[in-house]
Design goal:
Elements lengths: L11 H15 L4 H43 L14 H32 L2
Length: 121
Amino acid sequence: MSRQADQPDASEPEALVERIRAIIGTVALDCTCRQRVHDALGRFMSMEVQREARRHLIASRHHRAAIAALVELLAELEEIGFEEADLSVFAELAHLFEDIADHAAQGAADLRAIGAVRGGR
């Protein structure tokens, strides 16, 4: 369940802004215009930080919902005994626990990412 390949790197907006600033630094702009561009880039960075934090919060809520659904499926554990004839039931329930662990790890990573994104301001 790896999402790492799909996720943009949290530093991408920052790197983009720095590249834009480097290019603007080579252009002959008057001081007023240069300051306006600098201010606009600062606002862009703030909006990107908010967007990334919101994306991580939504993702962590998705993981919480998935965990809740999986826990409901685990209720079947109360209905089976250790002498269950169909041994595949135990393997299926074990997979539910593994899925819960995966969602918990990813949800925790998303919540930590909020701190990393906002802390990089």
